[in-house]
């Protein structure tokens, strides 16, 4: 395990470059595998999670060739043509790899066992197994957790699925399985989750109709494509939130994805009083792209619940850190899913915030954080959770009294391999 040391910058006014979006990178690779012919993906996320998807697709018989650090060519054989791998598929730490590939495998005539690291082995998989079974795939779990064994069929039964949890991963698994089903598949979600899969499949010629509550997919052929993945707003979030914390601090990230179902963090930052500028940029794919700049201000507390929680689910750790700097109590609710992520993020965040000297209260479905608090440098553990490693680095960048030490910080590479170098660069004056 490696440690990282963080201390506050004297000033912050810079541009930060973030990697390609992790969610979109997974989908670009998997959808390319379902197309017949060669696709090209640029600005692919260098995240360890995305590497897991590349490796698993290779094991499923797909020709996937990374070239350079962030580009990849994929030769797909068409939807339904994945092959049984020789070994267990190692999804590493990546829930997205496991759940989305479970869907793609379910729609092929093949059998695969999907497993992962200790964190992934604790995560719930019945939520994805159940709808795939209802379509006619054979899916087993170990008491609801990985390993997941999926025996797929090229012609699954089209169904209407009413999902009990708001999960883009589960929705995406069903949609990927449905590309070769025997009719129109419908998915009803309890709250609108990120729609990258719908956008990408539609862009590749598959008929996908959607509104806030319902998605329907008509089976069809997936056309190969060339796509530049937008920058990852969830990675930018750590720098944007840091800038928001101090008047006169400013960070700008160009070329990031601003899909409205992912951009809740920008709404929260604005509601807290930060100055947020979003300048639309031309993108070449199905996702909106923009340059986003955030300038700090005196912050006030926010209430985060309902659909807004879903729209910033991965940004809640860093928003909880930022809440320590805002006047009043920030309430985060409807976030019980946070307990089922790479760690129990509610419990681990509460511990971490207290280690920095902040006051907060844990709820079953979220967290209340009091502010403003003067954070003190601390020694904390990332608990094997990449977003906690980076959120605590932001806390350390706002803490007085020396260096903050983050144990197990290497897990940041699960989504953002260059994070600590970028943070040091930003603190040293940036670009
Ligand atoms: C993701 C969906 C979200 C998110 C995860 C990535 C995706 O999870 O938290 O980091 O790429 O579909 P759920 O869909 O399980 O809520």
Please give the count of helices. 14
CATH class of the largest domain: Alpha Beta
Q: Name the beta content range.
A: 25-35%
Helix content: 25-40%
Q: What small ligands are held by the chains?
A: shikimate-3-phosphate
- Envelope shape: globular
Provide the structure class.
alpha/beta
Total number of domains:
2
What is the terminal separation in angstroms? 30 Å
- What's the CATH topology name of the largest domain? UDP-n-acetylglucosamine1-carboxyvinyl-transferase, Chain
Mean pLDDT: 97
Largest sheet: 5 strands, mixed
Radius of gyration: 21 Å
CATH superfamily of the largest domain: Enolpyruvate transferase domain
Number of separate strands: 24
The CATH architecture assignment of the largest domain turns out to be: Alpha-beta prism
Describe the structure.
The chain has 431 residues and is of the alpha/beta class. The chain has 2 domains: 216 residues, Alpha-beta prism (UDP-n-acetylglucosamine1-carboxyvinyl-transferase, Chain), CATH 3.65.10.10; 204 residues, Enolpyruvate transferase domain (UDP-n-acetylglucosamine1-carboxyvinyl-transferase, Chain, Alpha-beta prism). The protein is built from 14 helices and 24 strands. The strands form 6 sheets. Strands 18, 19, 20, 21 and 22 form a 5-stranded mixed beta sheet that branches. β21 and β22 form a beta hairpin. α1 runs parallel beside α2, α2 runs parallel beside α3 and α3 runs parallel beside α6. It is globular. The model has no long low-confidence stretch (mean pLDDT 97).
């Amino acid at each position: 395990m490696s440690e990282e040391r963080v201390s506050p910058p004297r000033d912050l006014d810079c541009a930060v470059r973030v990697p390609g979006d992790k969610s979109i990178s997974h989908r670009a690779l998997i959808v390319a595998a379902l197309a017949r012919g060669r696709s090209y993906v640029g600005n692919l996320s260098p995240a360890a999670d995305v590497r897991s998807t590349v490796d698993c697709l290779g094991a499923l018989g797909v020709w996937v060739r990374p070239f350079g650090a962030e580009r990849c060519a994929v030769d797909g054989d068409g939807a339904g043509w994945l092959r049984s791998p020789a070994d267990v598929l190692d999804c590493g730490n990546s829930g997205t790899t496991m759940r989305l590939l479970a869907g793609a495998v379910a729609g092929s005539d093949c059998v695969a066992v999907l497993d992962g690291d200790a964190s992934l082995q604790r995560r719930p998989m019945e939520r994805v197994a159940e709808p795939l079974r209802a379509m006619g795939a054979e899916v087993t779990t170990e008491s609801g957790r990985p390993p997941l064994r999926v025996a797929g069929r090229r012609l699954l039964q089209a169904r209407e699925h009413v999902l009990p949890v708001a999960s883009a991963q589960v929705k995406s698994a069903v949609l990927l399985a449905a590309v070769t089903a025997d009719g129109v598949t419908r998915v009803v979600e309890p709250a609108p989750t990120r729609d990258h899969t719908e956008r990408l499949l539609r862009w590749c010629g598959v008929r996908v109709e959607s509104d806030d509550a319902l998605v329907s997919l008509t089976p069809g052929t997936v056309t190969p494509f060339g796509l530049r993945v937008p920058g990852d707003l969830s990675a930018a979030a750590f720098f944007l939130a840091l800038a928001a914390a101090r008047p006169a601090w400013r960070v700008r990230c160009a070329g990031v994805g601003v899909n409205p179902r992912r951009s809740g963090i920008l709404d929260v930052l604005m509601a807290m009083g930060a100055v947020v500028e979003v300048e639309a940029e031309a993108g070449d794919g199905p996702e909106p792209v923009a340059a986003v700049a955030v300038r700090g201000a005196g912050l006030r507390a926010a209430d985060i619940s309902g659909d807004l929680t879903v729209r910033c689910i991965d940004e809640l750790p860093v928003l909880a850190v930022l809440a320590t700097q805002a006047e009043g109590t920030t309430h985060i609710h409807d976030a019980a899913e946070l307990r089922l992520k790479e760690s129990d993020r509610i419990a681990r965040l509460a511990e971490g915030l207290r280690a920095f000297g902040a006051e907060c209260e844990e709820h079953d479905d979220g967290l209340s954080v009091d502010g403003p608090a003067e954070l003190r440098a601390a020694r904390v553990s990332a608990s094997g959770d990449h977003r906690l490693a980076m959120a605590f680095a932001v806390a350390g960048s706002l803490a007085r009294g020396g260096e903050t030490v983050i144990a197990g910080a290497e897990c940041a590479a699960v989504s953002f391999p260059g994070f600590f170098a970028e943070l040091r660069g930003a603190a040293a004056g940036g670009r």
